[in-house]
Amino acid sequence: MNERGRVTPARRRGLADEVADRIREAIFDGRYPPGAQLREVELSGDMDVSRGPVREALRLLEREGLVHCAWHRGTTVTSLSPDDVAELDSLRGALEDLAVREVIARASDEDLASVAKTADMMERADDAHEMVRCDIAFHDAVFAAAGHRRLADAWDGIRCQVHLFLLTRIGRSTQDYLDRVPREHRELVAALDARDTETALTLFAAHRRLAVDVISGSTEPS
Q1: How far apart are CA 214 and CA 198, in angstroms?
Q2: What pLDDT digit, counting tens, does each position of 183-211 carry?
Q3: What kind and span of H or E run contains 68?
Q4: pLDDT reported for residue 27
Q5: How far is Cα 213 from Cα 63, in angstroms, rounded to an integer?
Q6: Largest CA-CA distance found in the chain, in angstroms, rounded
Q7: Are strands 37-38 and 74-77 parallel, antiparallel or unpaired?
């Protein structure tokens, strides 16, 4: 094969990916809330790396939608606008509705047990950030149980932004959050186990709607 037709060597996972992982986890842990400034100098000092990998890591996180880079403001953790919330909710809803239909039509009992297991984990979450992680893990399991590779890939494309969406939700209010979320997910599991499509779709939609309403300030969780 001539030079023009040669495939370039694959890049191994590098330092920038590790730095991105650590910054992402710090965002998900709440150490950097939405709107927080991320300064290259401070991050490179904290992680004992040069600024180059930090700069590259921030670009990776920008592609995931977790941070926003602007020449006049530097880099900040993304703050979701009302339009962002609406777009993310509508896209998530479309993907999740298809996932629910696929799960009910195709998932095995073992797949449903895996979904139920993630819901059970919520009973042991002792803070809001851990509950958000459990919530994301539950929806990961739902998309995995759907057995639809391209649908799972589409979910993976917005997964970090949904995590940020849920962090925004707990930043707005955590009233009754640790009690309510496990209860909601037990109901979702029951509907999936019963293979009741209409009930499941209704419950998943209500679950999403509550988070949007809390973020928008149109309701407080009871």
Answers
A1: 25
A2: 999 999 999 999 999 999 999 999 999 99
A3: strand 67-70
A4: 96
A5: 27
A6: 67
A7: antiparallel
